Amino acid sequence: xxxxxxxxxxxxxxxxxxxxxxxxxxxxxxxxxxxxxxxxxxxxxxxxxxxxxxxxxxxxxxxxxxxxxxxxxxxxxxxxxxxxxxxxxxxxxxxxxxxxxxxxxxxxxxxxxxxxxxxxxxxxxxxxxxxxxxxxxxxxxxxxxxxxxxxxxxxxxxxxxxxxxxxxxxxxxxxxxxxxxxxxxxxxxxxxxxxxxxxxxxxxxxxxxxxxxxxxxxxxxxxxxxxxxxxxxxxxxxxxxxxxxxxxxxxxxxxxxxxxxxxxxxxxxxxxxxx
Length: 275
Known about the structure:
By secondary structure, the chain is an alpha/beta fold. It folds into two domains: 36 residues, no CATH class; 234 residues, Vaccinia Virus protein VP39 (Rossmann fold). It is built from nine helices and 15 strands. Strands 5-4-3-12-13-15-14 form a seven-stranded mixed sheet, sandwiched between helices. A hairpin with a 2-residue loop joins β9 and β10. It is globular, with a radius of gyration of 20 Å.
């Protein structure tokens, strides 16, 4: 919130609470501040998407820019059939979850471990009227179901490059600016929870922990039609053979044509699809 907007809210709050006790003054200020939350809208080929602005990182990129991963939008647009279920693992503020659900023909299960990003994700789901189409969980994916720490390079909503269980992301060690306890769950365990629908497609973008999550998703992977995985840093330099072995054993094959699309960070694996 800008200093000017903050001063306006403080002044208005003071006028409305003349003679009130301190608790009433604080509550009134909080209500006013909440009502002045900014929103940002992006235009996609499927329609407009609205986002609550909680931090600089919660303002999404233009969908057509390379940094926004246009290949992920394309995969969702061309791959999800009506009725298909998408699991968005590492949903952040929900850009791809919202895009997948906007036409209200698909449902999405979104996992985001950061409490700040998770709060914004839920706000964005409500802003777009997609409560019935997106289930959001403040969980992390993992090799084993456990209670772990989220090591946070940046604690703000929309931040990336944090890490579950260590201060190492896909690019190496980072300075830790905060911690958060989080339930880390095997995707195979998640798939067994009553009320959770099994995925037809998975988007996996978890800042270097992709291999660990795949190791806990053997059964789930055997059932999906496709999975899009971010492959950069440690995944490209050290983990790629192990990742591709798990993917191959699940009966999935890489679509080579996808490697150089858009950002070039994602690889796409399909089951029984003509390339």
